[in-house]
Amino acid sequence: QVQLVESGGGLVQAGGSLRLSCAASADISSINAMAWYRQAPGKQRDWVAGITRSGNTNYADSVKGRFTISRDNAQNTLYLQMTSLNPEDTSTYYCNIYVNGMSYWGKGILVTVSS
Length: 115
Hints:
Structural class: mainly beta
Order of helices and strands: EEEEEEEEEEE
Distance between the termini: 40 Å
Helix content: under 10%
Strand content: over 45%
Radius of gyration: 13 Å
Largest sheet: 7 strands, mixed
């Protein structure tokens, strides 16, 4: 069982930045698939960005060029740096890892972008 705890969310004005963190309770250095998702009220949960063990990254078109996913294996932490935020980015953000056939989720952190 792996526990994931997100932090760093909050209220920010449009055009601002936030950095989300996701602390894992286990060693992440061998975990290949780590990702961030988000879910706006009344909508489905959408994939935002992913990173592999080797550091390869991918992004949803809606955040490409504005968000950066990274990982610190020594700190067992996943990050999401978000810049040029707009109200459409308002969502609860979840970190996710996939290991040994199991998908683990954090409880989510709310990001609200005001116009």
